[in-house]
Amino acid sequence: MSKCRSCGEPAVIDLPRHNANFCSEHFMQLCHRQLEKAISDFDMLSREDRVLVAVSGGKDSLALWDMLLEAGYHADGLYIGLGIGEYSDESGVITRAFAASQGLKLIEVDIRNEHGFDIPTAAGVTGRSPCSACGLSKRHIFDEVAQREGYDVLATGHNLDDEAAVLFGNTLRWDIEYLRRQAPVLTAGNGFGKKVKPLVRLTEREMAAWCVIRGIDYVVEECPMAVGNKHLAYKDALNRLDAASPGTKASFYLGYLERMQPVLAEHADVDAPSSCPNCGAPSASADQPCAFCRLVDSATGHDAIPVRMVLNKKARKIFDAQWGSQDGK
Ligand code: Q46
Ligand code: ZN
Ligand code: ZN
User: Fold this and answer.
1) What's the 284 CA to ligand 3 centre distance in angstroms?
2) Measured in angstroms, how far is the CA atom of residue 251 from the centroid of ligand 1?
3) Nearest CA residue ID for atom 4, ligand 1
4) Is the domain defined by 41-323 classed in CATH 3.30.70.100?
5) Which of 94, 99, 193, 277 could form a disulfide with 57 if both were Cys (CB 3.0 to 4.6 A apart)?
6) Residues near ligand 1 (Cβ within 6 A)
C-alpha cells in the first residue's frame, strides 16, 4: 500500500500532479493550503467579509462552503431552484440537509416561484441553449441576492478543471474578450458585486475526495442539460492530456493566470454599463431591459416544458438511463 508523503501512514489518495500520495489529514491540509493560496494571491476574501456561497448540491460548492467555514470565514449559502426535473429536486434536498446538519444559513430562490419560469421552459421557448439561459439567470440572481442581503462577496465552486476547460474553449476560438474576463476575481463596480472562485487551484477529483473524507453527501449525477455539451468534451480532452503527462492541465490554467491574464487585463474595457430601466441591474443600454428581464419576459406565461423534451437525442438517452422516462414522453 502506498504511504503518505508527509507522515508515512497509509495513503487514501494519489495525486499524480504532485507526484505524491497523502493520508486524509495531510490531503486536507494540502487542500487548505491551495485554498488559502488562491484567496491571498488574488485578494479574494478576508475573515471580516460576509461571504455568500452559491451552492448547487454538487461536490464543489458543498466542499467550498465546508472548507471556508473550517478556515474561519463567515459564509452563508445561496441555493437556486432551477426547475430541472428530478435533478433539481434532489439537489435541493441534499443542499438543505447539508445546511441543516451544520446549522448554517441557507437562502433559497425558486426561479419558478419568483420569476415564473424554469430553465427547460426558458430554453424551449426562447431557443437559447439551456446552459446559456441558466448561466444568465444564475449570474443575475447571485448578484441581486448578494447585494440585497448586504454580502461583501459571492463565492462560486468553479474548480481547476472547470476553469481549464473554459480556458481551452476560449483559446480554441481565440475569444479575446472572454480570455480577458476569465479571472478568478471580479471586483465590485459598475453595479456588480464582487465575485470570487476560491477553488481554482483544486481539481474536481480532489473536491470529490474532500467530500468523501468529510462524509458530505452530494449530487453525483451531472446536470442532465449539460450532457453532450462542449464544456464536457473539453474537460475530457484535457483529462486525456493530463493522464499522459500529469500536471499539464494545472500548468495550462495556472500559467494563464500568472502570465497571460495580467497582460490581457491591462487592456480591459472601462466603459460603465447603464442600468436596466426595469430592475436596475447593469444593462448594455439604458433604453432596453437587461438580458435577464428580457429572458423573464419571453419565458414566463408558458406551460412548463419537461426537461427531456429540450434535450438532443444523445442527451435524452443518457437522461432516460439515469432518471427514467419520468416525464412520460
Ligand atoms: S446547471 Fe445550468 Fe449547469 Fe445544468 S443547465 Fe447548464 S449551467 S449544466 S453548472
Ligand atoms: Zn499523512
Ligand atoms: Zn433588468
Assistant:
1) 10
2) 26
3) 223
4) no
5) 94
6) 119, 130-131, 134-135, 223, 225-226
Cell, residue 194? 464582487
CA of 135 to the centre of ligand 1 (A): 7
pLDDT (tens, 9 = 90+) of the chain, 329 residues, equals 699 999 999 999 999 989 999 999 999 999 999 999 999 999 999 999 999 999 999 999 999 999 999 999 999 999 999 999 999 999 999 999 999 999 999 999 999 999 999 999 999 999 888 999 999 999 999 999 999 999 999 999 999 999 999 999 999 999 999 999 899 999 998 888 999 999 999 999 999 999 999 999 999 988 989 887 889 999 999 999 999 999 999 999 999 999 999 898 887 766 677 899 999 998 888 888 999 999 999 999 888 888 888 888 888 888 888 777 655 44
